[in-house]
Amino acid sequence: MKIHEYQGKDLLQQFKVPIPAGGVADTPEEARRVAETLEAG
């Protein structure tokens, strides 16, 4: 079976497997925003 990473994460979360938080960024500004969100959470 071939699945994308996000699909694997969704599947594992259904079975209560802890998944680290993350985000997607296309620009340095978005990367900074994702990092700040992860630090705050």
UniProtKB/TrEMBL annotation:
Matches recorded under InterPro entries: ATP-grasp_succ-CoA_synth-type
Segments forming domain ATP-grasp fold succinyl-CoA synthetase-type: 2-39
SUPFAM superfamilies with a match to the protein in the record: Glutathione synthetase ATP-binding domain-like (SSF56059)
One Pfam family cited in the UniProt record for this chain: ATP-grasp_2
EC number: 6.2.1.5
Top enzyme class: ligase
Biased composition (Basic and acidic residues): 29-41
Region called Disordered, residue ranges: 20-41
Molecular-function GO terms, alphabetical: succinate-CoA ligase (ADP-forming) activity
Keywords, comma-separated and alphabetical: Ligase
Record's keyword annotation contains Amino-acid biosynthesis: no
Protein name: Succinate--CoA ligase subunit beta
Source organism of this protein record: Desulfobacca acetoxidans
Gene from which the chain derives: sucC
